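Our preliminary data section would be incomplete without showing what the modeling component actually yields. Below, a chain of 371 amino acids is followed by its predicted structure, encoded as tokens that our downstream tools consume directly.
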Amino acid sequence: MKKLLLLLAFPILGVSAQIEGTWKLAGQAGSLAVGPALNDLTWFSSSLGDVTTRACLFDDSIKFAPGGAMTHYMDGSTWLEGWQGAPEGCGTPIAPHTGGAATYTFDAVLGTLTVNGLGAHIGLAKVNNAGELTSPAGAVSSITYNVTFSNGGNTMTAQINFGPGWWQFVYQKTEVINPPTPNVTFKVDMNQYAGPAYTGVFVNGTFNNWCGACNPMSDANMDGVWEVTLPIGPGVIDYKFTLDGWFAEEQFIGGESCTVTNGGFTNRTYTVVGDAVLGTVCYNSCTACVAGLEDISNQVVSVYPNPSNGTLAVVSNSSTILNNITNIMGETVMSLNGNESSINIANLGAGIYFLNFTVKGENQTIRIVRN
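Predicted structure:
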């Protein structure tokens, strides 16, 4: 079977290749359904039990090859009905609905599939564009279905108006197409970091279950910018940069342009749609480090370890005044003297708190976690 090509980095199949491959009726309830109108399938819908009782139909496969060749494999047995002059149930295929070679055309723009050849069909043999057969002698040589694709191109839904209503057949590709996982490159500039010493920078997020040291970054050229490229599936991710696993982490107040707050935790956020190289950001910032700033130690307070259930070490300087610690309600739970080098939070209950301080008359906050 031809290997299908994927375009770009998204799970979108080339339109000419969407139909190509081998298909079987999906082994689920509703694979065969009929009703009075399009998407109103209230007259009949196959059950999950029918996958077993009609196994001779569900194991039939249809291959659409490049160039328009179609092959219907019935393996000597399929589902028969009374209009074929046979008891309803599994049995030897009855001419001309015996499968084998046929041809097809697929119009991706119109979303139509036409099968050609006396007795050629998908779904149920009796259903065609003029109605339902009452005997094999009425078999037609061409049937057109409306088709749509979902599940990354692995599911095909075929619908046909047979006059009094609509039949729907749901097929599943036998060889599942897995779109390539996008690669995302993260970069963080540590040149203006003034906290405690560290040996490694890591990226943690929803994509690695906040595992700590699973995804180390590197600074191969020793320019202070650490980076890593990771395979991450499409969707929204939350993440942040940490030091030496969870020894220290970025601290955001909330409301920053690159962050989102969920469950009391504020992290960076990004929507993965394909391969991407994210812009280099300054540690604990949504933007790049700005050259020419005065020593960042005049503006930042670092605390570690965070989370903690005991004593927090505080790194600051003489221009920093530590004010207090408040809870998420804004209530003061601990007053500070202004120049502490450590803070014991063992007496606080587990939860999220905020260390409030002043740098050159500007009020700032760091989130701390008592675990």
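Residues 296-370 form a domain with the Immunoglobulin-like fold (CATH 2.60.40). The first strand starts at residue 6 and ends at 7. Preliminary results of this kind motivate Aim 1 of the renewal.
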